[in-house]
Amino acid sequence: MSEVVLRVEDLRTSFFTRVGEFKAVDGVSFYVKEGETFGLVGESACGKSVTALSLLRLLPEPAGKIVGGKITLDGIDLMTLDKKEMREIRGKKISMILQDPMTSLNPVYTVGDQIGEAVRLHQQLHDNMVEDEVISALRLLRIPAPEQRVHDYPFQMSGGMRQRVVGSIAMSCRPRLLIADEPTTALDATIQAQYIALFKDIQKQTGVAIIFITHDFGVVANICHRVAVMYAGSIVETAPTSIIFKAPIHPYTSALIHSVPHLDRRDDRLYSIEGQPPSLLNLPPGCRFAPRCPEVMDICHKEQPPTVEISDGHSVSCWRVK
Amino acid sequence: MTELLLEGRDLKKHYPVTKGLLQRTIGWVRAIDGISFTIEQGKTLSLVGESGAGKTTVAKAVLLLERLTSGHILFEGNDVYNFSKSDLKTRYRPSVQSVQQNPWSSMNPRMRVRDIIAEPLVVNTTKTKQETRQRVLELLDQVGLAPNQADYYPHEFSGGQRQRIAVARALALNPRLVVLDEPVSALDVSIRAQIMNLLKDLQEQYNLSYLVIAHNLATVRFMSHSVAIMYLGQIVEYGDAEDVFTQPLHPYTRALMSASLLTLPEDEDQSISPIILSGEMPSPLNPPPGCRFHTRCAEAMEICSKEEPELRTVGNHQVRCHVHEDPGVHPESS
Amino acid sequence: MLEKDSDSETAAKPVISGLSLQARVLRKLTFIIPVIILSLIILMAIFADLAWLGLPDVRLAPFDPEKISMRDRLMPPFWAEEGSTDHLLGTDKMGRDILSRLIFGARISLSVSLLVILITSFIGTVLGILGGYLGGRTEAFLMRITDISLAFPPILVAMLLAVSMGPSFTTVVLAISLLGWAPYARLIRGETLRLREIDFVAQARIIGASPFRIMLKHIFPNIINPLIIVMTLQIGLLIITEASLSFLGVGIPPPAPSWGNMVNDGRNLVDTAWWISTFPGIAIALVVLSGNFLGDWLRDKLDPRLRQL
Q: What's the rounded Cα separation, in Å, for the pair B193 and B219?
């Protein structure tokens, strides 16, 4: 059966600045299995991107630091690795795709060179074999006429194509885990649909585990098997995708799902949450969502709720659930 | 009968592509190629499409930021290009305002919020300082901001709040039409709902017309009375929003809807299989012959590559397609 | 697609700085030291004497800079054998006190620089904004003039002017200003072009604002930052230009104690009476360095995009 590829336990990452400590990620735990897509959903500053950077240990130094927790990839604790060992993991075992394909690619190198760089760094191959690997990576992402595309520059390609090239670079060494940080946000709806269908196929083919970071629920529904909803640095609810949509328990999850307009019916008014997310500098003492929660109780303001597992794969962090 | 506020007739904007030292024109980018629409007072028309469809070009033309190659924009029945300079300043500009997509660049970072909102009044009216200040406070209240926030600078606000300021500014002159270019796409999900509710409320209160440019169909369905689906410079489906969304005819519209629907994995088998288009939108420099969509259309027939279809009334709305001319023949998608 | 700002911060975004205490202190120093030096020099220039305040006898400088005393000529600085504490930095070949001349020289050099900066920045900014915003033939015309101005070697033109008009304070200011506006015009035009495409300018047009209003209220306030940076960086350059002109004999006419003149005075005596050229030389170097450091610091603070300048 599919094994757990990544396990994150109580991850804490903060940014230390002149004005204080920003607790960007404050106690996040989850796991991802082989061949599974795990979604990290939330709004701005909820900590999803910082979580991704923490996994790759690519935080901007010296301000960003992982201050606690354990990250285990195929049984290896990533926090125990030195810089050189971590570099070998990056690109080979864990790979990442970012949002903007234009800035993810270097404009002065051909597509072939850029994919080739990734291949060379992680595999000891002869030059002519590198080219084969490059073309095979392009084929995996269904880029037409890969033998010609190898010589193209990024500016010669459309946004959708470029994002596929980025995908090729990420998949070139067949990583165990792929982290995709809002990879489709910059793409048009129909291109996005193509891209997601493509990734589902690639996942079936290679068994790669994917962490998919997004704020778009349509995408979540489409590609994620399980989802974690983040708010102000913590995970408030983790569940299989359909449960998140059909039976969310945490008030924030519920509010978020309801504030998205529907295409399949006409709404007269949208459900909206009052207020703003809290400052990561001055987090409220209790549950972070308490100031805005429609179902708040006294204890919510005082103590942070523990994470409770309700059923298989469904856990919530809310005082209303015991 | 509600009166026609704005009408676009066969709008075309072609940009020349030049080459060489002497700047010879070697081709034309047909950004919009024959767009026609009407907007009634108090109603919302949305232009939907992906990048390259030409919707922003239409918005710019309506805002007089770009000059059309051909076509007419009629405001209250009068051709805008025939307006004198003073007419434009007194009749058109105050009536047609805009809220832009990016709340971070649509405001001068060096101006305080009260000056940003007051500027339309300062430029166009002869109100006293006191009257202007009063109006600014009114507007802030309308959009849900506190009076003391008038003295802050834009960077002190969040994205959602900045959009509220932008809306306040747009309303300063009591416009008849507000052009909203992707007003919520840069905002967080929960904030979008707030802003969309606000826009709807204001529309009701002031009988405002909106021209909304968007790519998110769900947003469009929530906000619009009528909708025009655009592809490569043309309108491919046009009509009442409910009609178009409940009975989409054009294959592109259906693909867009399929891409935008929230389908959970276990529902996939029950619902219609998703429509995934092949390829990408061709360049407006070289639109395909015949129907511009035929290169990606799964239902293309022979005639589609030869003859460009016209926008015809089919059933309760209009569609530009050879294949789907009869509403009774094809299955609905939602 | 757009970058999302954090919806949770309604206060200004914090600056992430994990620098060590050492690094931070050093960074502060690169600002504090130039400011101190420049302030001292400015004070020197103002208080050289208070004649402009109607008090001709109140002086910071110990002597009249043009007072000749053949008896005291070529005295070395006070720490040398034949030096005396009367003339702390020695005297030149006419017996004039070096320190006094240095102090008065500050006044001359700074006045020239300030005037030139004001004139050139004004002309350059106006032309830059007009050209950048209005485009079309206006821009083409203005940019051609700018290019032509940049093609001329400034020192040569200054010399030509000096020779035809006769050297004087006015001539020097005119000579340097004549071509000095061009770099400003180019920079400001570039900035204007960039700003012109930003949404809030389009918004101003939608509201019905006139081009003049847009240039004044929207473009200008947003180019102040790069403008100030360039103005600061110009200080050093101008001091050197003035000094070079005076050194070449076509600047401020002697016996005025401009630093360039002073360096020129000691030119032939460098191996024997080294102090005559050296002290003004050090003064020039200090001002130039201070101006540059200050300009760099301002640029890093206000506008990191200009790093290539």
A: 9
